[in-house]
Design goal:
mainly alpha; Monooxygenase; 3 helices; 77% helix; 0% strand; elongated
Length: 92
């Protein structure tokens, strides 16, 4: 039987690694046009709550993996705000 902490750590590593390519791509291309601001605000809020939940449980896999994912997703959120160029509509 697999150790429950090991299972949690492996799950967290997989979901954390999934965000790395997005963060690196946004940094490299500076393109945030197709990034949803609402999704990243909600997702980062959820990650903060997961970290706090992990702290309450003293569960290092929850704390560590969600904190790293928050760092990656938070960087995409910050880049979304920084790199977004407001579109100017021409007078019709």
């Amino acid at each position: 039987m697999i150790n429950v902490d090991l299972l949690g750590a492996l799950a967290g590593v997989c979901t954390t690694i999934a965000f790395a390519p997005q963060a690196f791509r946004v940094w490299k291309t500076r393109s945030v046009r197709d990034i949803s601001l609402t999704m990243y605000v909600l997702f980062c809020s959820g990650l903060v709550m997961w970290v706090l939940y992990g702290v309450q449980l003293q569960a290092w896999p929850i704390i560590l993996t969600n904190a790293v994912t928050l760092l990656l997703a938070g960087s995409v959120l910050v880049m979304k705000v920084m790199f977004e160029v407001p579109t100017v509509k021409a007078n019709a």
